[in-house]
Amino acid sequence: MGHNTPSMTPPFQQMAEFFRQLAGTMSEPSGMNFEKMRKMGGVEFEGTTDPMVVEQWLERVERVFEQQECTNAAKFKYANSLLQKDAYDWWKEFLNLRQGSISIAEYQQNFLRLSRYAGGIIDGERDKCRRFEEGLNGYIRKSVAILQLEYFSKLISVALTWERIDKEEASRRENRRASGACLNCGSMDQKVKDCPNPNPLSYTHTEGSVQKPVTTHSQANSGARPQNMQAAGSSGANKASGSRANARVYAMRQKNDQDGSDVVVGKFHLFGISVVTLFDPGSSHSYVCSSLAFPDNVKSARLDFDVLVTSPLGHQDVVNRIYRDCPFMIQNLVFPADLLEMPFQDYDVIVGMDWLHKHHALVN
């Protein structure tokens, strides 16, 4: 990208708005004669610091479009073909921006640098969040997308938290691997495949898929150890009808399975109702039992996508409703919570990492 790009804010905003309008109403292109359009006055655009030059270029291109009666798809492709040097570099880099192998902080810097010139493409804070999410790596993207955060600073904070947790876990596992210790519990007496104590917070991930070991219901009268389960689905960034997002509900326990040091169970109040609550940093999101008796004036909202979750007993359910800003009360203080409606009934409320992070809370 050219070194003079930061000084091009107004021109690039004009150009971004022009492309956004074309992209918003595109249909299938008809036959296009790029050479003929150039002969009629369409000229290449390399970028400039002068807004008047941009305005003149846009007007000239639009006149050619009118003469040729182009479809919007043809206009979009033709105008894009005229971008050169700094103008084309900015356009291509912004559309293709992804986190890839860089850190979230570096990705954030690149995103902010490029989005400064995209006032016509990014429409407000919420759209900014959605576009940033789209470029995040798979497992973090799926973790934050379901939260539907509408403030960019909060989105960054949550994404950085997931990145830190991932790095800490990777470092811990690498240290144990180097020492020959069990990758789950750290014991030198067995390997991970023979470990009798699966770690509910350990996990592996690959781009595009997520799998989390979970602490499940104890098998009735069997004394069985926790087993694994997976919440399956596709990216939460996809809001098309019928799409599904991942939900990590991987540390849910029955009331008689509370020996884990990473969870706390107690009775608190929600809408003035006493609720049995599990505080579990192993769950990425927070939930409320669908059978809870809510006040008549409390209504849930439908998510823009479905969430496929798996119960501790292996049953799958689709979750697509959320109660926002619920007055969750602890010691006469209210701590608002966004709660996904949950069909499982072991607890009235499960408080996960989203709430813990929001209120800077620790479970100990």
Automatic annotation (TrEMBL):
Using the UniProt annotation, give all residue ranges assigned to the region (Disordered).
196-245
Among the Pfam families in the record, one is RVP_2
Q: Which residues fall in a compositionally biased region of kind Low complexity? A: 231-245
Q: Where is the composition biased (Polar residues)?
A: 200-230
Gene3D superfamilies in UniProt: Acid Proteases (2.40.70.10)
Cite the PANTHER family for this sequence.
LDOC1 RELATED, ZINC FINGER, CCHC-TYPE, RETROTRANSPOSON GAG DOMAIN, ASPARTIC PEPTIDASE DOMAIN PROTEIN-RELATED
Q: What is this protein called?
A: Retrotransposon gag domain-containing protein
